[in-house]
Design goal:
Shape: globular
Mean pLDDT: 96
Low-confidence stretches: none
Number of strands: 11
Helix content: under 10%
Order of helices and strands: EEEEEEEEEEE
Length: 116
């Protein structure tokens, strides 16, 4: 079965940057959306950025102008470049794929901590 693996989390100072990666074991036919979610302790999981097949990227308001979602089809990898990080960006970040048939695939998450 499909298993997504996130990497790139860690401790970052405010104003710093970090690039997250989400690797799939191989090409997955039928994916219609790929995105990044995050969840901070005591808060709901929220969509940070997403690419919809055939369309462009979408971003949560606080991520606009700071985060960039991209993908490398040849490497079966989804990325999230995060710049100008703020303490409120601290969360576990999860990658997510939505399949045409309704199946959803998640990674186990990678923790990003923004603190001085």
């Amino acid at each position: 079965q499909v298993q997504l693996v996130e990497s790139g989390g860690g401790l970052v100072q405010p104003g710093g940057f970090r690039k997250l990666s989400c690797a799939a074991p191989g090409s997955i036919p039928g994916i219609v959306a790929m995105g990044w979610y995050r969840q901070a302790p005591g808060k709901q999981r929220e969509l940070v950025a997403r690419i919809i097949s055939g369309g462009g990227p979408n971003y949560e308001d606080s991520a606009k102008g700071r985060f960039t979602i991209s993908k490398d089809n040849a490497q079966n990898t989804l990325y999230l470049q995060m710049n100008s990080l703020k303490p409120e960006d601290t969360a576990v970040y999860y990658c997510h794929y939505l399949h045409l048939l309704g199946m959803e695939y998640w990674g186990k998450g990678t923790l990003v901590t923004v603190s001085s």
